[in-house]
Amino acid sequence: MPPALHVCQQGFEAFLAKEAGACREKGPGWVMSASAATDLCFAHFSLPQPLELEGESVNILAGRIADYFLETSRGELYEAVWPLCFEAAGVESLNQRCRGVLKAFQEKTSRMARVMRLAEEGRPALGSWRGLFVYLTDFKRAFAARQAWGGGQRRMSDDPRAPSRSYLKVEEAYLVLREAPRPGDSVADLGAAPGGWSFSAAQRGARVLAVDNGPLKGGALDNPLIEHCPQDAYKFAPERTMDWLFCDMIDDPRKVLELLRRWVRRGWCRKFIVNLKFGRHDPFLLLREAASSQGGISSRCSVLRPRHLFHDREEITLVGMLKEGQGRGHGR
Ligand SMILES: C[S@@+](CC[C@H](N)C(=O)[O-])C[C@H]1O[C@@H](n2cnc3c(N)ncnc32)[C@H](O)[C@@H]1O
């Protein structure tokens, strides 16, 4: 059994291979590593010790997966909802094959109707899960595991009133943090225009200061919960501690990290979602800097999670929550 199969966004396998370490094999959107590390920035989910299964046809492959599921289900009590995830690498034809294998698997397990009714299809949410996780690396080869670790990334659905596709990133980031703005929360959105992130927070009833010299558009324009502050985000200082710092600026990621450090050190926010556009920079240097106890970010946070989101391109998103009592001078 290989130690772990990690799944990432297609095109970012080299980053994931470097992060997971000891890469044995990789393909479009996946990396097999000899290390069973979890909580990786570039992994959307990881399957520890998956079983490799082969089958010439959809039916044979589904049968092998069903046998594995039945065998490993012996003595198991299914009383709550459990995750059922079938995914495939790369091309659409393989995704189609994957859907066919899932359908055949469901037919073969129909005599476990009560158990199967509790199955919830889709990627594992953030954390460690027991369920059934299947990943097709090609037409005749799949890896199956009963345990998975989920990073929280997933495809989000768009809102036609959102002024930009960036909206999808912040919506996804809430899942990684397991927190979202609530009615009455205060948000400083640095680099806000055209307003996707601000719109997302306002939709949840939060009041937003949208800091950007550029114009707001769509559902963020003339929104009663969004105040546009046309100014330089590096010069912006909140009058009181904000519940949220959002930051999605196109700028040198080290400068953005320094900005985050200032906000955290001064206790200007309680939670943050900050996007670092790494481009040609080494993302691992940025991650190391963010996690370093010297920098003053990680030591002041009770949660600090860097993720390459499903909707991220050459960027990573840092979500975090400050420890109680880290607010300085701005208390609430
Ligand atoms: C990727 S866009 C932000 C998209 C936004 N999050 C959304 O959801 O629509 C980056 C924004 O950063 C802004 N920006 C870059 N440097 C800035 C600075 N120093 N101060 C304020 N805004 C800045 C740009 O004007 C641009 O509107």
Task: Provide a descriptive summary of the structure in words.
By secondary structure, the chain is an alpha/beta fold. The protein folds into 2 domains: 4-150, VC0802-like; 166-322, Vaccinia Virus protein VP39 (Rossmann fold, 3-Layer(aba) Sandwich). Helices cover 27% and strands 29% of the residues. It is built from 8 helices and 16 strands. The chain has helices at 13-20, 58-73, 92-108, 113-117, 166-177, 196-203, 253-265, 283-291, and strands at residues 4-7, 23-27, 30-33, 45-48, 51-54, 82-88, 119-121, 127-138, 141-150, 186-190, 207-211, 226-229, 242-247, 269-276, 301-307, 316-322. The strands form 2 sheets. Strands 1, 2, 3, 4, 5, 6, 7, 8 and 9 form a 9-stranded mixed β-sheet that branches. A 7-stranded mixed β-sheet has the order 12-11-10-13-14-16-15, with helices on both faces. Strand 8 (127-138) and strand 9 form a beta hairpin. The longest helix is centred in the first third of the chain and has 17 residues, at 92-108. The termini are far apart. The mean pLDDT is 94. S-adenosylmethionine binds at residues 163-164, 166-167, 191-197, 211-214, 232-234, 248-251.
